[in-house]
Amino acid sequence: MPKLPSYRITDLAEAISPDCKKPIVGIRPGEKIHEEMIAPADAFCTYDLGNFYVILPPNPNWEVEEFVKIYKAKKVNTGFSYNSGENTIWETVESLKALVSKV
């Protein structure tokens, strides 16, 4: 899983249609605020490869030590979570405009 920037839906709306009204009506019951890509329960099998995270199967049919050596993988801390709420890299309205224009 590549480490990607997060973005706010309001910034995406601004990038797509800057002149439209964009009222925020609030959060609905059960609605998520942040997307969680790696849950704390997955931390036991998750490795950091620099630009990527890899979640290995609990019982792989290969040597994990060899995988760690070849890819210089680092085990994440217990309880690790990868989610948009804690991400430090964010898209801006300008970068979203550039992305949208490519589509």
TrEMBL record:
Gene3D superfamilies given in the database record: NAD(P)-binding Rossmann-like Domain
Superkingdom per UniProt: Bacteria
Segments forming domain Polysaccharide biosynthesis protein CapD-like: 5-55
Name of the protein described by the UniProt record: Polysaccharide biosynthesis protein CapD-like domain-containing protein
Taxonomic lineage of the native organism: Bacteria, Pseudomonadati, Bacteroidota, Flavobacteriia, Flavobacteriales
